[in-house]
Amino acid sequence: xxxxxxxxxxxxxxxxxxxxxxxxxxxxxxxxxxxxxxxxxxxxxxxxxxxxxxxxxxxxxxxxxxxxxxxxxxxxxxxxxxxxxxxxxxxxxxxxxxxxxxxxxxxxxxxxxxxxxxxxxxxxxxxxxxxxxxxxxxxxxxxxxxxxxxxxxxxxxxxxxxxxxxxxxxxxxxxxxxxxxxxxxxxxxxxxxxxxxxxxxxxxxxxxxxxxxxxx
Length: 216
Ligand code: AP5
Ligand code: MG
Ligand code: ZN
Known about the structure:
This protein is α/β, with parallel strands linked by helices. It has helices spanning about 15-25, 30-40, 45-55, 60-70, 90-100, 115-125, 165-180, 180-190, 200-215; strands at about 1-5, 30, 80-85, 110-115, 125-130, 135-140, 155-160, 190-195.
């Protein structure tokens, strides 16, 4: 099953992806995670990405497309994949269509997590992530048992450098001007499904799983 998650920053794409990939046994491909890893390792890709990610701006399409093209060709994607945060521009979507056509594959589902802009700032500024395993928490909405400690692996929790009020504003503007037009792109192809991302985390997971199984 080839799945794409869409939605504004903080909609819950990563949170839901962690759960859905476990249930459907497919890899989670997040371009944001890939950039953060490269930035941490200080690779040339990381240095390039940092110029944009730190400002809340989209990384140029050619850089981003290259990462996804390489990743989709790896063996673990053979039975399917879940893309989170890619594509984010019409040009990336066209590049993805080309990559998949070249592999004789196509997208099966595009899930859009709908969350009102007024909720996103609180979600993002309260987000905490595990340094070791990448699990996502929220200080109020999904707190770990012990403050600052990952409930799954005991790792230390940290805050993303782009989760400040100022950068969230830029990220939301980027989303509205460049990424939101993709919803019409996928709707035209009859792939788009809307899920209410404002409900409880477990409820959202169940609704996505129903969509993917075609039992909603
Ligand atoms: P990326 O890492 O993809 O960030 P994003 O799109 O801004 O999305 P987030 O990861 O912030 O939100 P999410 O939807 O995953 O929410 P989460 O589940 O964590 O990209 C970062 C940067 O990389 C970009 O700005 C850009 O620079 C670059 N980049 C990445 N991809 C690119 C591309 N394709 N092209 C160009 N540049 C690219 O949840 C958020 C919080 O809410 C958490 O604390 C969570 O616990 C909480 N929460 C989740 N669900 C619920 C719920 N139902 N109720 C209450 N709280 C909830
Ligand atoms: Mg994410
Ligand atoms: Zn952890």
